[in-house]
Design goal:
Keywords: Membrane, Transmembrane, Transmembrane helix. With about 180 residues, the chain is an all-alpha fold. The protein is about 70% helix and about 0% strand. It has one domain.
Length: about 180
């Protein structure tokens, strides 16, 4: 993990990709599972592969000109963990990771001006956190690209004007009391 991270930080993505290829598949082999080492990890199930390594495995191909397939595979993996865990306390961590991967995908799609996919990702993220002002701002940006002026006004300008009105009321009340 550390060697791949170091190579990635040094922007040597080709070498990092070769290093990851040497590790083979994380999920198919029994080598990277807790069940393969019961003497060290008794009563544990699942994968030994840390999320950071999975993240690098998904990210590095985008740096060397490949597609986003591994990022979508990572998103499916994280969503599978959420379904699998149910009410476990680690579900919150998995949900944060899901938002992280989705935000990264959103950034890639916005960077490549793929606004249709970006709009769907933003809508899905906003359903989970409707008060996230950064997401609402990105939604406004994508809607401007599409020319959806009415929706832009509803989702972006109108909420911002409400915030400004609230701040103006606060400022007025503080100057009256002085």
């Amino acid at each position: 993990t550390y060697q791949v991270m170091a190579l990635t930080k040094l922007r040597r993505s080709d070498e990092a990709s070769r290093e990851l290829t040497a590790l083979h598949d994380f999920d198919d082999g029994a080598h990277y599972r807790y069940e393969s080492h019961p003497e060290i990890y008794p009563n544990r199930k699942g994968s030994l592969v840390p999320f950071a390594l999975r993240w690098l495995h998904a990210l590095i191909p985008t740096r060397i000109g490949n597609r986003l397939d591994r990022l979508y595979t990572l998103l499916d993996f994280v969503r599978g963990r959420i379904r699998e865990k149910g009410d476990d306390c680690s579900v919150e961590l998995c949900k944060k990771r899901e938002r992280f991967v989705m935000s990264c995908l959103l950034g890639f799609h916005l960077g490549h001006k793929e606004f249709g996919v970006s709009l769907e990702l933003i809508k899905e993220l906003i359903k989970r956190d409707p008060l996230d002002h950064v997401l609402v701002s990105k939604l406004g940006y994508v809607q401007m690209q599409f020319g959806i002026v009415y929706m832009l006004f509803r989702s972006w300008i109108f909420p911002l004007s409400n915030v400004m009105i609230t701040w103006m009321d606060i400022l007025r009340s503080s100057t009256r009391s002085s």
